[in-house]
Design goal:
Oligomer: homotetramer
Largest sheet of chain A: 5 strands, antiparallel
Distance between the termini of chain A: 10 Å
Shape of chain A: globular
Amino acid sequence: MLTNIRNVRVEWCDCDPAGIIFYPRYFEMFDTCTTALIERALGMRKIEYLKAYGFAGHPLVATRARFRLPTRFGDEVAIESALVACGRSSFKVEHRLSKAGALAVEGFETRVWVGRAADDPQRLKSREMPPDMLARLQHGG
Amino acid sequence: MLTNIRNVRVEWCDCDPAGIIFYPRYFEMFDTCTTALIERALGMRKIEYLKAYGFAGHPLVATRARFRLPTRFGDEVAIESALVACGRSSFKVEHRLSKAGALAVEGFETRVWVGRAADDPQRLKSREMPPDMLARLQHGG
Amino acid sequence: MLTNIRNVRVEWCDCDPAGIIFYPRYFEMFDTCTTALIERALGMRKIEYLKAYGFAGHPLVATRARFRLPTRFGDEVAIESALVACGRSSFKVEHRLSKAGALAVEGFETRVWVGRAADDPQRLKSREMPPDMLARLQHGG
Amino acid sequence: MLTNIRNVRVEWCDCDPAGIIFYPRYFEMFDTCTTALIERALGMRKIEYLKAYGFAGHPLVATRARFRLPTRFGDEVAIESALVACGRSSFKVEHRLSKAGALAVEGFETRVWVGRAADDPQRLKSREMPPDMLARLQHGG
């Protein structure tokens, strides 16, 4: 199974007037972690894999998260991400964010691959991965 | 049941290189909608109700969302928020974001009330609402 | 001279652990104000005017700001924006953000119009406005 | 002179529909760089130096920036920050962000130290650094 770990420091810019992280920032972090996971499997940066395979992105269709412990500016956290399911047109990623070894946040996301519609580049439409790309994601790069 | 509707325009600053909203921005919008809901019930702005009742905030313990239709910069959306459960120390809010009458995003959140620990203002701890505040939320203001 | 006023409420999501707005959020607001100014002159939404005239955006080449008074969540502010200079390929906008009638922030920006390079859509290059578009901006719509 | 270098990767979450970084994100990066600079001089994390010296933060009174080259998601950039002036109540920082050795963005900021007003913790007021803290910043830690 494809996995990746990123170490991130929570910063002042991530935090709200309560002094803790403003939770949408966790989703920003998870988005970057999912990119890192796919980059690792494909051996290309996102800007490259989007271009190479003709995708516009891999937006979410669903997500959920549980926030178990607060984090605040200056905290060093580790985010373990795993590709837990991967079909031709959609995939699922789970993220476990921990602080000093304790699980602080769990995130779950389901994403689809999209390309640009031929007749209107501003419109996105679902698009399947070619077999070689799918194989790389399913076998961990 | 306490409800509120906010009309929001998705802006360039909310969107990503695919040209659609970057999904953590939905959670920012939902956070503002939850504040508006409580402000409506209590007849006070957030900065006032936090001070009046001695809270530091109402952070999330869990959330989930489904993204059914994409939105992009310039789209006018309406967000209906409802307080679907409210106890002394936690509450649940549901958000339905629609575009041109079609449901685009659903968000669900569970939050708790927190205050600052007496011995360390940087540490947050769970805190119950006083009865008059609870009554206002449960009876819609 | 082309001008526009937007009324904005500073929200919890805009503020940092000091309880005041995190200053990059002012630049987000100013970006939206500049869009509103151009939309007003052209009578089109940004997504429409980019497409109609073949632009990818109007990124900044320089900006500066002075922060005179703090703002915090719940504050209602008014932002007056004015197109103070407009040539074929660049333009300047000034923003004055006030709170309860008092000037809180001044912002100044210089922007250029860019299109996508014919040989590589990911690369941006400077591009001049067609005369009818320029005339609308210079004469205030 | 106190200096620091941070290496940052521009991510998808930092970029706009033109495919380049949304410029307020540069200010977020600069804010984190200024924190890193002070942390280096004082040998404490921000959450610790704010507490140790009784400050609420070091907000900006003025900033300006020049954007020379665009950056996009996947770009690795280096940000050199220098404390170019430091008095008892205000200081100036310059940031130079480069990509593959070429200067892409220059940022200049003037900040003040603030504490919380004794009679109203939500109100901020200017506050001077104690001599030992000032000496550490002026002599580079």
